[in-house]
Amino acid sequence: MCGVFGAFSKDGNSVLEDVYLGLYALQHRGQETAGIAWTDLFGNKNVHAMRGSGLVHTALDQKALSSNTANVAIGHVRYSTAGGSDFSNAQPIIANYARGSVAIAHNGNITNATAIRNFLENRGAIFQSTGDTETILHLMAHQSHKPPLDALVGALRLLRGAYSLAVLLGNRLIAARDPWGFRPLIIGQRGEVTYVASESCALDIVGAEIIRDVKPGEILVIDEKGMKSLKIPVTPRRKHLCAFEYVYFARPDSLIDGRSVYGVRKALGCYLAKSSPCGKADMATGLPDSGTISAIGYAEASELPYEKVIVRNRYVGRTFIEPTQRVRDLGVKIKLNPIGKMIDGKRIVVVDDSIVRGTTVQRVISMIRDSGADEVHVRIASPPVRFPCYYGIDTPTCEELAAARMDTETLCRNIGADSLAYISVEDMTEAIGLPAPDLCTACFTGEYLQGGEDYEMDL
Ligand code: AMP
Questions:
Q1: Per-residue pLDDT averaged across 140-169, rounded?
Q2: Global pTM?
Q3: Atom 16, ligand 1: which residue's CA is nearest?
Q4: CATH number given to 255-445
Q5: For the structural domain made of 3-236, what CATH number should be given?
Q6: I want to staple 131 with a disulfide (CB 3.0 to 4.6 A). Which of 81, 83, 181, 214 is the partner?
Q7: Distance 358 CA to ligand 1 centre (A)
Q8: 164 pairs with which residues across the strands?
Q9: What residue spans define the domains of the chain?
């Protein structure tokens, strides 16, 4: 999973600090690398980039950025899915090719990238990275008889899978979302500056108003003339907006396709309380931070008190390094710690957003039991994750997915819970509030994007 952000200022003011701030708000979408690309404000429209490893504030030199001036720029935070965590896969990727300068920031996973790469390598292309995003650049370069925007449209027409893009073509900003609408992408405005962002929380930080979501299959060209909408010439059978964005990935203060992520998470908890009540419990709690909002919904709907009895050390990041065996053994305890006094002798409902490998929930239950809980009932605000995601979320293979390996009863015993229940796909869909055929639920149902939109690879 990744985050993208872009800004174009009509009145020529520098947008580099805005892009830095936007990435800061999208940090939850990727912590491996961060990067910003911009075009020279005046003169020859060359593209430049600054990229680094780790979190935004360590990867990017804010001071050095502020010594540059650019009225158009894009940025990216990366969490590796396609291509692995090699630094050569850091984005935005940039090129000054025959027809001008290009920079691309990509969120999603292009499912036919290997086929395209083989096709292009057989025709002499030399790839610099192992990632899927570079295929877009090469597809453009192989159509150098076309103007850059036409070459980009021609490239996107050939892609299958998930891509939400912020692109620089010379000093134009382009936003593009795949025809299936897998990943979110939203447009905002503040005065003379137009923004594109993976999530609306990044528009908030720069003080921009939401204009609207980029439509699936839409290309928005933003330049000094304004904003022009084009269509990617692919007709999808249906939409595939990722349900897991609402369940776990997006920030709760974001709106995706008009739905509040916070509202959806709370509703997930309410539906879960109705389908899997736990009447004899003393309280409901959530695993911080991912289960907290659904736990509030669960508590409210089941008229149980909500207590925050598990505390998260907020300085532990995902990139935490585990140096010694003792520290490794501490595992989840370094991140989460129960409040013993609140738990002792109590029957507790623990709500979390999802079970992936099952390690977190197992360790938390054991900690809660060690604190003297009488009963621990687990409620999960998503259906069992049984299938890997090919569209940009980093899920393990089937063999590693706890719910793919065992049924709910066996898993319940395995994690040491007194009971375990999940929300159904139907209830999750209702809680999200979008029509079922608009959502991608492949990680729960195995219903992946169908082929059927085949084409001859012809450049
Ligand atoms: P696990 O211990 O593997 O069962 O992980 C489950 C926890 O990881 C849940 O509490 C989620 O909040 C979180 N999670 C779910 N999906 C992902 C993902 N793709 N990457 C990182 N964390 C995740």
A1: 96
A2: 0.95
A3: 356
A4: 3.40.50.2020
A5: 3.60.20.10
A6: 83
A7: 9
A8: 107, 177
A9: 3-236, 255-445
